[in-house]
Amino acid sequence: MQSESRVVALIATGGTIAGTAARADDLVGYDAGALSAEQLIAALPALAGQALETWTLARLDSCDMDHATWALLRRELQARLARPDVAGVVVTHGTDTLEETSWFLQRTLDAAKPVVLTAAMRPASAPSPDGPQNLLDAVRLAREPGARGVLVAFGGQVFAGADLRKLHGWRVDAFSAGDAGPVAVFEDGGLRRFRDWPALALHAAPVGDVAPAAWPRVEIVTSHAGASGRIVDALVADGVHGLVIAGTGNGTLHHTLRDAAARAQAAGVAVVRASRCLAGGVVGRAEGSLPQHGTATPAQARIELMLDLMARRR
C-alpha cells in the first residue's frame, strides 16, 4: 500500500500551469514556464508538510517541446520510479503537446507506479487559475494505492495517457479521452474509478540507446480538398524517414497523395495513415491502402512510426 510518508516526485517542464502575465486578466499573453517546480508547490498550502521533492527540468512553452527534452524526461522518470521510497511522479506540462508527451511516455516507460501528467489552461497569474486544483489532484493520484501507468489529471478527471485528446484551444475543459472515456473522476476528496488502470507499455522502444539527434525523422502531411502530392515529394527529397498522412474521415486520401505516398514507399520511406478527425481513428483496411495505427491521432501515429523505425534499426 502506498502511504502519505512515501515521496511524490514533481518534475516541472513549463507550460501554462507555470505561466505568468503582466495583467491578471490576460489569459493568452502570458510567459509560459515562468515559475519553477518549487514555486508551484509553495503556492499550494494544502501540500505543506507532504513528502515531496521537486525538480525543474525545463521551462518550455509546450508548443516547443522537443525530442531532447523527451529523452531527458524519460530518463529522469525511470530513475525516480526505480526508487522504493517514491510512490509516484507528477509531471507539470503545457497543454499544446500534452497528448504527444503522454503517448510517448506510455509507449516507452514500464511504469508500474503512477506517472501523472497535469497542466492548465489558465496561467498562474489569472484571477481563477485551474492549475492549482489540477496539481493537487495529480499529487493525490500519484499516491493512489494500485495506480500505475501514464495518467493525466485534468479538470477533475483522470485520463489514460494513450487516450488523451485536446479538443479546445482555451476552455478549461479542453481535454477528452474520445471513445474510451476517463479512467476515473475526483469527487469529494476521493477517486471514483470506471475502469482498470492503463496497461504497461506494450514495448519499451530503445530510445535510451539512441541520441535524440539520431531519432528517425517523421513528418505529418494532411489530406484536404485540392491536395497536392508535391509536399510529399519534397519531403522525400529532403531525406525524411517516415510520413504520416492525416486523412479525411476514416483515413481516406486525396488521389494525388495516394500516388505520392506510393512514390515515397518506392523510395524506401515508411508511410502510414491516420484520421484528421479527433474521434474514431481509422477502422479496417481496404485492399491496397496504406497501413494505419487505429485510433491514434496523427501526432500519436507520428511517434509510433518513429519508435517503429527506431526499433528496426537495432
From TrEMBL:
<feature type="domain" description="Asparaginase/glutaminase C-terminal">
    <location>
        <begin position="217"/>
        <end position="309"/>
    </location>
</feature>
<dbReference type="Pfam" id="PF17763">
    <property type="entry name" value="Asparaginase_C"/>
</dbReference>
<dbReference type="Pfam" id="PF00710">
    <property type="entry name" value="Asparaginase"/>
</dbReference>
<feature type="domain" description="L-asparaginase N-terminal">
    <location>
        <begin position="8"/>
        <end position="192"/>
    </location>
</feature>
<protein>
    <submittedName>
        <fullName>L-asparaginase</fullName>
    </submittedName>
</protein>
<dbReference type="InterPro" id="IPR004550">
    <property type="entry name" value="AsnASE_II"/>
</dbReference>
<dbReference type="InterPro" id="IPR027475">
    <property type="entry name" value="Asparaginase/glutaminase_AS2"/>
</dbReference>
<dbReference type="InterPro" id="IPR027474">
    <property type="entry name" value="L-asparaginase_N"/>
</dbReference>
<dbReference type="InterPro" id="IPR036152">
    <property type="entry name" value="Asp/glu_Ase-like_sf"/>
</dbReference>
<dbReference type="InterPro" id="IPR027473">
    <property type="entry name" value="L-asparaginase_C"/>
</dbReference>
<dbReference type="InterPro" id="IPR037152">
    <property type="entry name" value="L-asparaginase_N_sf"/>
</dbReference>
<feature type="active site">
    <location>
        <position position="16"/>
    </location>
</feature>
<feature type="active site">
    <location>
        <position position="95"/>
    </location>
</feature>
<dbReference type="InterPro" id="IPR006034">
    <property type="entry name" value="Asparaginase/glutaminase-like"/>
</dbReference>
<dbReference type="InterPro" id="IPR040919">
    <property type="entry name" value="Asparaginase_C"/>
</dbReference>
<keyword id="KW-0378">Hydrolase</keyword>
<comment type="similarity">
    <text>Belongs to the asparaginase 1 family.</text>
</comment>
<dbReference type="InterPro" id="IPR020827">
    <property type="entry name" value="Asparaginase/glutaminase_AS1"/>
</dbReference>
